[in-house]
Design brief:
The structure is a homodimer.
Chain A lengths: L9 H19 L4 E2 L1 H8 L3 H11 L3 E2 L3 E3 H11 L8 E4 L3 H8 L2 H4 L4 E6 L8 E2 L2 E5 L3 H8 L3 E4 L3 H13 L4 E4 L12 E4 L2 H21 L51
Parallel strand pairs in A: 4-5, 4-8, 5-7, 8-9, 9-10
Antiparallel strand pairs in A: 1-3, 2-3, 6-7
Chain B binds a DNA duplex (22 and 22 nucleotides) through helix 1, helix 3 and strand 2.
Chain lengths: ~270, ~270
DNA sequence: ACCTGTGAACCCCTTCACAGCG
DNA sequence: CGCTGTGAAGGGGTTCACAGGT
């Protein structure tokens, strides 16, 4: 039972953080058992998906009863590798980089911001959110010193690829890119990208499409499936004081009123 | 040719902004024709996918030659509804909200920040990035006044749902949520969520998994840093009536060195 | 009875391979 | 010939429905 480790599907991996956050909330309410149906509702997915997802982790539920919240939380954390800390370095201390540095949600969830890096002489040496900003050239030293595991790219698009190369060269093989650029990394590295402008463009696609059908309404199309509410999910750190929020990942959409096409969702 | 409008798949819609950005760069280099293969390489996808995606927009390529950059750019912009401006209101002016307000990438791409909103008395009335911060109660007026089409939620998780409800009530049916919470909107609205902590957790999953199979790894193959670009891939879409589904965001990952399991990607 | 775990159907997307047309 | 456009094959992921425990 040490490593059941069936190949957990990527789609499932992307939902585990949502279950994790949901279960944390449930636990805070002193509830110690939860059914797939209830968890599904809270996480904004359907019950069959919850059961299938959790089954990849092993059989941690009890038939006729549900899942023990504390145990499930532990298993998901273990699966996500959150039983240990994964220090993060943020490269590019502009508006976004600074906001991320101030975001308390990282440290709370096992991803403490260990270092800030930039190349701008005006920024290097400054202090942002309690961290001194180092020069990009110091990356190798910082990585070794703090055991940095993840690199966050918050630079302009033009420098994103170079930064990624430098991160990989320094041994940082997990990269989260916020720059609006296509970035390539070698096979041994992992990369995820978040593009804010892209999200807005996708939203405008659906908005426009839905508006089209609104005027003359075309009958005969598929009925709209839809409905409901959904939810994103994710890990929630403490946001109280700051209000930053950001995070990435979950997305969900819905179709529009007059039209029949369901809108996509992402997460 | 007015409305070929085949049902463009959600996965394709999510890639259109990438093609758009890529083509803009190509156009800046004075290149006026591009093949699917070249576009694919630059966008980080494969050629067959590019051709299939573009075919949903209509037959805008020339066999034996490729696609005319300017024309394709126009068609994609039109499809994404970017021929007009979609004003944005940012709710929650904390670190992230302020960073987004300062982010020039929105206005440049047809999504000008038209208003900033918060509920904190200490913030209302202040000026951030040239915009005065209004109280959330003024939302209906601001929406009508500026023709706001999209709402960005950058508040703490606890208030995200209420903000979403208020946005919808005010007529804003396209919402981009950065709060780490499951948010539900009625069928006529569209919602996409981005969760930063979630992305980091997904990265740590793959990092951990890959490390399991690794032992000595690490010859420095620095020379190969980069190189290929093999593909990005997209995430799986999911949307059906119920729930959330995931898909968006761009993410791309690669398999890890020692193991054989490929890592997921999403973009 | 109730709820989990899961095989199988279904659906969407990706990839292949080639027909079709400059 | 070159490159696009696309039918068909292949792979995942979601959903269904029910078998299997409690």
């Amino acid at each position: 039972m040490d490593r059941p480790r069936r190949h957990i599907p990527a789609a499932t991996v992307a939902r585990l953080p949502v279950y994790l956050r949901t279960l944390s909330e449930v636990q805070a309410d002193q509830i110690d058992t939860i059914s797939s149906e209830r968890l599904a509702e809270m996480a904004g997915v359907n019950a069959a998906k919850v059961r299938k997802d959790l089954s990849f982790l092993g059989s941690y539920g009890t038939r006729g009863v549900g899942y023990e919240v504390a145990y499930l939380l532990f298993q998901i954390r273990r699966e996500l590798g959150l039983t240990q800390s994964w220090p993060v370095v943020i490269v590019g201390i502009g508006n976004l980089g600074a906001a991320l540095a101030n975001y308390g949600g990282f440290g709370d969830r096992g991803h403490p911001v260990a270092a800030l890096v930039d190349t701008d002489p005006a920024k290097v040496g400054a202090t942002v959110s309690g961290h001194r900003v180092h020069h990009l050239d110091e990356l190798p030293v910082l990585v070794a010193e703090h055991g940095i595991a993840i690199g966050v790219i918050a630079t302009p698009a033009e420098t994103a690829q170079e930064v990624a190369d430098r991160l990989v060269a320094a041994g940082v093989t997990s990269i989260l890119n916020f720059a609006p650029a296509v970035v390539s990394v070698p096979p041994e590295a992992s990369l995820r990208s978040v593009d804010l402008a892209l999200e807005l463009q996708v939203l405008s696609f659906y908005r426009q499409r839905d508006l089209v059908g609104e005027v003359g309404a075309e009958p005969g199309d598929r009925s709209s499936v839809e409905g409901h509410s959904a939810g994103i999910a994710d890990a929630a750190p403490n946001w109280q004081d700051d209000a930053v929020s950001g995070m990435l990942g979950a997305v969900r959409e819905r179709p529009s009123a007059g039209s029949k096409e369901p809108t996509p969702t992402c997460r």
